[in-house]
Amino acid sequence: MNSKASGKTIFANNKNQRIAILQPGYIPWLGFFEQLYSTDIFVFLDDAQFTKNDWRNRNRIKTKNGVQWLTIPVLHKFGQKISDTLIDNRSGWQRKHLQSFISWYGKSKYFENYYIEFERVLSKSWKYIVDVDIEITLLLNRLLGISSTIARSSELQLTSQDRQLRLIEICSKLQADFFYEGESGQGYMDDDLFKSNGITVAFQDYQHPFYNQLWVRERGFISHLSIIDLLFNHGPDSMDIITGQKIIEKPEHIIITHADEV
User: Fold this and answer.
1) pTM of the shown model
2) Cα–Cα distance, 116 to 98 (Å, whole number)
3) Spatial distance between the Cα atoms of 91 and 176, rounded to a whole number of angstroms
4) pLDDT digits (tens, 9 = 90+) for 6-23
5) In the chain, N or C: fewer CB atoms in 10 Å?
6) DSSP state of 29
7) What are the C-alpha distances in Å from 97 to residues 26, 73, 101, 118, 122?
8) CA 14 to CA 76: how far, in whole Å?
9) In the chain, how many H helices and how many E strands?
10) In the chain, how many domains are there?
11) Are 153 and 43 in contact, with CB atoms under 8 Å apart?
12) CB under 8 Å to 152, separation ≥6 — which residues?
């Protein structure tokens, strides 16, 4: 596993390793990084089928008007894998996204500390959505101090076609016996199947924290945005806020709204 975007190469020779397996996403939300932080090994499920209008190529930020989607346009064909999905670079999406960062976060406390890092990544020439997703996640890992070992499922030479057996095969190959799965996994995963293969499964129950945002008086607090909203506003305290080690008390008059409802 020597891909430039894969991070550290895995030498799986230790038992009792915690693993999370998620499809890559564009500047993901806080809960994504809570899973990353909580595990020894993090696997990007990059050979799953690309799903249109999903988190692979878009996410949300806060503006003075509410919420804005940042979307990377792609050339999508039904049934294609995430790893094979090409970016449509005709629209100048990089310039638009960077300008949105400047417009809506330019006055945030830690904007000057981090903007140049995103500018460096987004100014590169990108061909595949998976590569920009992973590169930005690796950047965010570094900024947040996350040291989990990173792998890509497309590099593991997997043979299982069944969804659950494929996850079990990943755990087995990387000698992980504790699988930290997202909340949505409760809808399809068979705990007994994993237990019979020596794998304990725990489902994330992430409680989204309150933190200081721009335009709180005008818009209240909006949860479930891209992590850059937290990072630009709280900088080096971001990881402690994500994990609940630092709590920002919410003023009683502030209303919290899920981004889905804005």
Assistant:
1) 0.92
2) 10
3) 42
4) 333 333 444 579 999 999
5) N
6) B
7) 12, 12, 6, 10, 9
8) 39
9) 9, 11
10) 1
11) yes
12) 1, 3, 5, 6, 43, 44, 46, 47, 83, 134
